[in-house]
Amino acid sequence: MAKNENNKGLTTFSWVGVNARGKRMEGELNGPNIAIVKAQLRKQGITPSKVKKKAQPLFGMNGDKPIKPKDMAVFTRQLATMLLAGVSLIQALDMIANGSENKSLQKLITKIADEVKAGDPLSKALRANPKYFDELYCDLVESGEQSGALDRIFDRVALYKEKAEALKSKIKKAMFYPVAVLTIAFIVTVILLIFVVPQFEQVFAGFGAELPAFTQFVIGISEFMQAYWWIVFGIIGAGFMLFKRAHQSSKQVRDNTDKAILKLPVVGLILNKAAVARYARTLSTTFAAGVPLVDALDSAAGASGNAVYRDAILDIKNEVSSGNQMNFAMKNSGIFPDMVVQMVAIGEESGSLDEMLGKVASIYESEVDDAVDGLSSLLEPLIMAVLGVLVGGLIVAMYLPIFQLGKIVGG
Q1: CA-to-CA dists, residue 184 to 8, 188, 216, 397, angstroms
Q2: Half-sphere CA count of 214, side-chain side, radius 13 A
Q3: CA–CA distances in Å: residue 393 to residues 73, 214, 271, 388, 399
């Protein structure tokens, strides 16, 4: 049996077969594809009955990596590029699978390729993996199969996935920055209360005079934190877990959270722009792929990422279903900027709605980029205020008795 080596460009296959004496054997063998592995086994006098790919172990553990949305965006772009270049679907899937370094993604693509080779449409093979391919993705692929333009549809889907992932990354960056700053401010404050303030308290004990009210207040908080810090952190942790559970199980909690987030200073503005960009990009992609407008609006509602916009888009869908123009329905919703409504109206009148929505998406994606890049400067006043009140307030409270003592001595 061949030695299992981790050679670059080769895939590990597990095999089962019988030798010349009819004895059942099994093992692993490296090779570029199944056909060559079978040929190598036959040269060794083994008749293979089953050969399949197997992920390489890493440091004694399973080396499979989870498949991330970014991986799916890259896969979609690779497939679109190959199809546009004239490569057949099955050949393209095999090439992408063999070239993937992510073993989990390699298994997924191989599974899809096997189903397509067996005669199933690609859309059906994708629907069998809803964890990685949502309804919108599968519907677009199915429309491409029916229209005979799968290569162009995949190009649109790839662009959609790339833009969606870029937008998601920007939103995470926008949310992370203020949360990180406030968390650090809280940790610094707790450290000062537990470790620094008690040192001043020992100094103040020898003054023999009544301390200022503000200093007494801070010392009281410090003593409470020293005695019950575990209760404070326990309440914070329990509150976070309860909110997380409620957010997962209750639609009302999710909806109210989405409404509150949109009203946050600075970050709320970015999330509103991102929601408009996502709405326009989804509609542009689906409508251009030949999906009816009502169905496209349904997909846009599901991809909105926020309950406020989801409900508004569903209302727009109902109005469009009743015969109203989409720009009137968008205006009635009250959440879309006038410029977006006007551009949609122009697109409806000129018959180029998909192109106009694509321009809207590009404009708002660019605005989100600019807003996130300038987020630090926009939040600097708020950060300085928070840090000034928390840390500066503690310092003032500790030095007030010293200033008063100086006045008494000087008098």
Answers
A1: 44, 6, 25, 21
A2: 11
A3: 49, 9, 33, 7, 10
User: How many separate domains does the chain show?
Assistant: 3
Within a domain: 1: no
Number of other CB atoms surrounding residue 171 within 10 Å: 20
**Three-state DSSP class for residue 14:** strand
Same domain for 278 and 343: yes
Location of structure tokens 């890493």: 58
Q: Which residue has the tokens 């600019």?
A: 370
Residues 275 and 393 in one domain: yes
Query: What angle do the packed helices 69-84 and 103-117 form, to 10 degrees?
Result: 50
Verify that 231 and 375 share a domain, yes or no.
yes
The H or E element spanning position 181 is: helix 150-191
Opening angle at CA 314, ends 311 and 316, nearest 5: 110
Q: What angle (nearest 5°) sits at the alpha carbon of residue 36, between those of residues 31 and 42?
A: 115
One domain, residues 155 and 249: no
Same domain, 308 and 359: yes
Q: What is the pLDDT along the chain (411 residues), one digit of tens a residue?
A: 333 334 445 677 777 888 777 777 777 777 777 888 788 778 777 888 888 776 554 443 444 678 888 888 899 999 999 999 888 999 999 898 888 888 888 889 998 998 888 888 998 999 888 888 888 888 888 888 888 888 888 888 888 888 888 888 888 877 787 788 778 888 888 888 888 888 887 777 766 667 888 888 888 888 888 888 888 889 989 999 998 888 888 888 888 888 888 888 778 888 899 899 999 998 988 888 888 888 888 888 888 888 899 999 999 999 999 988 999 999 998 899 999 999 999 998 988 888 899 999 999 988 888 888 777 677 777 777 877 888 888 888 888 887 766 655 444
DSSP letter for 58, please.
Answer: E
Q: What distances in angstroms separate CA 13 from CA 22, 23, 129, 397, one per listed residue?
A: 21, 20, 23, 70
Instruction: Looking at the structure, tell me whether residues 89 and 209 fall in a common domain.
Output: no
Who's near 242: CB < 8 A, 6+ residues apart?
A: none
Find the domain containing 195 and state its range: 175-410
Three-class secondary structure of residue 45 per DSSP: coil
- The tokens describing 67, both together, are 């498949």
DSSP state of 210: P
Domain edge (last residue) among 102, 132, 164? 164
Alpha carbons 341 and 306: distance in angstroms, whole number:
19
Task: Report angle CA 2, 104, 156 to the nearest 5 degrees.
Answer: 130
CB atoms within 10 A of CB 33: 15
